[in-house]
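Workshop exercise sheet. Pairs work together: one partner reads the sequence aloud, the other fills in the structure field after running the prediction. Swap roles for the next sheet.
Pair: D.N. / O.F.
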Amino acid sequence: MSNDFNVNLPVVPEEKLSDVKISGSGQIAGGNYGVVHVSGSGHYSGDIHCREVHASGSLKGEGAVTASEEFHVSGSFKGVGDITASEFHVSGSAAVGGAVSCGKEFHTSGSIRCQSIAAKNIHISGRIETAGDVEGESVIISGGGTIGGLLNAENIEIKTSDALVSGGKLLIGSIGGSSIRVTASGAGSFFRRIIGRNPHAAPFVVTETIEGDEIDVDSVSALRVSGKNVVIGSGCEIKAVEYSGSLVIEEGAQVGEQRKI
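Structure field:
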């Protein structure tokens, strides 16, 4: 079985490609390269096709970037156009004007803003802002923000963090998958077990619908939850639940209509 996730990565030419190295500040013209390495501040103009991108500091530009192997930024990235790579790693902030598509891994720590995300394994720690869908086989989110479209994966895990439990939200158009879990994590969950949940606190995840097989959620607001085996935990506000197997509604959850299908 292929490890790629519905991404058409470029074929790297057999001839040796020139590398680009910027130390300090510099400009990169659109074209075909081996490794693009920026330490400091770099700006590209035009589409970039390469094997790898490694930037430490700031990388900005206009045009699509396609990396047959890895796209890695530590610092800040701002680009106009799509990003396509086997692996996408950003530690800091990234603003992508187009979509991000990865054959294997997508990892961000800090903030990411883009049109959509498609990757086999997606791990987001911090803030996410997408106008469209987030799609993968496995998705783990620890943070808040907005997913404008569908969050879709075989396995979805959303972890609420201490800071976001106290005031942030994760807004999602709709959620679909096989296994879907939304859990409290960190010191915030410890203190809630001791002193109790604030009955006036707003749910952390807000979405229209959740559809899956195994669903176990805390602190979620949804119009409809539909699944096989469903657990509605503390802090949830659900208007309607449909289930074909089992349904558990824990103390502190508000559920309207309940229907076995």
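Discussion prompt: Confidence is low (pLDDT under 50) at residues 162-166, 186-200. What would you look at next?
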